[in-house]
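[agent] plan:
  1. take the single chain provided in the ticket
  2. run structure prediction with default settings
  3. attach structure tokens to the ticket
  4. add a short note for the reviewer (M.T.)
[agent] executing step 1
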Amino acid sequence: MKSIYVAGCDVGSTTGKAIILNHEGIQGQAVCPSEIDPEDTANKVLSMAYESIETINSPNDLSYLIGTGYGRREIPFANENISEITCHAMGAFSCQSDTRTIIDIGGQDVKAISIGDKGEVIDFSMNDKCAAGTGRFFEMMAQIFRMNLSQFSDLSLQAQQIIPVTSQCSVFAETEVITLLAKRKKSADIAAGIQASVAKRCFTLLKKTGIQPLVTITGGCSKNLGLIKALEKRLRMPIHQLTIDPQLMGAYGAAIMAMKKMDQ
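[agent] step 2 finished; step 3 output follows
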């Protein structure tokens, strides 16, 4: 019997993500930087995800493909497109069925998502008016310290105290951080202040949707351990780590829903 393969493709503002599923589980996955054209991003990341699967050479070989992310409507070969909010909810729920609250930090926005006992979205709120608190913001902050994102996260964990970064605008926050460094304040303490500032913004969004355990984090910033520590301190509860790469959660949720379509 021929194996059925389905896919979820998440075309985000900074990265493309794809997961290939069959009934035995994940068979391929990939992440790549986003191209200017969302269709090019989708083609590239899907090709990377199924390059080790001999029976798949193009999207036409997939039984069902769901696109998600900001570029989802620009994937002409997708059978369907679904909001990334719904896909992240389904992905996190499929990894951990008692997940009830998600904070999704993407390249250009932050979303707080409340989900029910079937993985459905109950409520959500998002901050897409300013880059502060997003992946782009962290990239900008790391550049000030002449570090990559992983080094910046490690630096913040070395702090002996937290120096507050109070500016709500990403541009003003950059100026504030440069000024603090010029005053010879400790880099680790400033980095911890940046993490605490983002955690505070996330907490404000989460309060709008309600905070119920288990709480988890998805998106590329889920790998920022300094941010996770700051969030746990602000929430006064642990953040659950998912067993599948949280950056792939939108693509995973899309693939799960694609398989459900095939099983109907």
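[agent] step 4 note for reviewer: The chain has a mean pLDDT of 94.
[agent] ticket updated
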